[in-house]
Design brief:
This protein is of the alpha+beta class. Helix content is 27%, strand content 29%.
Length: 116
């Protein structure tokens, strides 16, 4: 099975910019990579992409492709802000990154659950 993570990417901007960004992502990623996430949620000013229980390693082409898409938002002329968060299986395995224009819209909430 291997080590798994929960990953979210949030892309934000004006409605027209988000719509154009999604279209560009579909072209750049291609169908297989574009359809890889477990869920995608589109709002008027955001695009939320989620993976549940995924092997998130740079050795995988899917991960590199989505990472490059995220990094494309880091340029000064990008109208899209982006935020990335990954939570691994270990308690201290957390990653958070935000581009220059991204608002902080994601956070980690820990809770105790009991399954008897």
């Amino acid at each position: 099975m291997g080590y798994r993570s929960y990953v979210k990417m949030l892309f934000t901007g004006d409605h027209e910019d988000v719509t154009a960004f999604i279209a560009r992502a579909k072209l750049e990623l291609g169908g297989e990579y574009f359809d890889w996430p477990d869920s995608k949620d589109v709002g008027s000013r955001y695009w939320l992409v989620e993976w549940n229980s995924v092997k998130w390693y740079d050795i995988y082409n899917h991960v590199r492709a989505w990472g490059a898409l995220f990094e494309s938002c880091r340029t000064e002329d990008s109208p899209i802000g982006a935020e990335f968060m990954r939570v691994g299986e270990d308690d201290d395995d957390l990653e958070h990154d935000i581009t220059h224009d991204g608002d902080r819209n994601m956070w980690i909430s820990r809770q105790i659950e009991v399954d008897i």
